[in-house]
Amino acid sequence: MSLAATGALLGLVAGIGLVIVAIRSPRARRIRYADRIEPYLRDTPAPSRLLDDSAAHAARRSARVAPTPLAAVEALARPFLEDAARRLDRFLGGRAGLVRRLTQAGGRTSVEEFRTQQVILAVAGGLVGAVLLVPRAVIGVGPPPVVGVALIVAGVAGGVVGREWWLTRAIRAREDRMLMEFPTIAELLALAVTAGESPVGALERVARLTHGELGYELRLALADARAGATLVQALEGIATRTTLGSLARFVDGMAVAIERGTPLADVLRAQAVDVREAGRRQLLESGGRKEIAMMVPVVFLVLPTTVIFAFYPALVSFTFFAQ
User: Fewer C-beta neighbours within 10 Å, C or N terminus of the chain?
Assistant: First the structure.
């Protein structure tokens, strides 16, 4: 690398640093309304634990976290990440759909946190693409600059799309766990109702005894009911937070049984049987797909190797006698 190129690179880095310092200086940085009123809201009382137990537990856990050595770096980088996350959110759009998908994934990540994670992964992907250009800049060996720029763009896009793919995978895994928990919870509800519990009492008992994803949804429904919604509306909120048809049918059956006074235990047992049958069919279908996928290594790896071991000695013998 020539002296002029080194000087130009150092000057470019220094110029970018000065521009960032000038933009993020206190005089140039715009103060948000939330930043101005935040000091006056620090002493507000904590919300009721009855409305959201998970939020209170998360707040207590975060309060007990000890400061790490990277806390200063995190505090310095947070304004840049928040700025980039807001710009990315405006560029991609679809905030309502993203909120719905985050809710389906459990609602433990906000939109801002998700966009910040996308920004971090995009920067990491861009750095991976830029690392491939280092040999080209140092020793002149490597991909041409056009390919390097394409790799950087592909790394940035891959980071953004990769986080979206991971969210889709988390939603699918969570719904699979809910389907596995559903028959047991439905039978527990039926048992509690048969023993004389009211629908609300049965839901409270089962939600207290279970700790899975469906139990978490039941606790959210009970929190909505305590906040003023009717039990039917709270149960319908479970169906809106998931894409499972069997769970939506279960909620509709419970709502109809509560409104019309029909025997709830029979409805719950029938729903549990239906979900078990659906899970059995899904397992058979998955086994059939896996069986077809297992044919790929057999046909393309095992079979050619067997043919080679069978015919190679004969081929060597024919070649030897032909000579």
Answer: C
Domain ranges of the chain: 175-279
Percent of the chain with pLDDT over 70: 82
Residue 297's identity, in one-letter code, is P
What pLDDT, on a 0 to 100 scale, did the predictor assign at position 52? 47
Binned at pLDDT 50, 70 and 90, residue 258 comes out as: confident
The DSSP line for 146-212 is HHHHHHHHHHHHHHHHHHHHHHHHHHHHHHHHHHHHHHHHHHHHHHHHHTT--HHHHHHHHHHH--S
Mean pLDDT of 220-242: 83
Q: Which CATH class is domain 175-279?
A: mainly alpha
Residue type, 29: R
Helical packing angle, 71-92 and 111-131, nearest 10°:
100
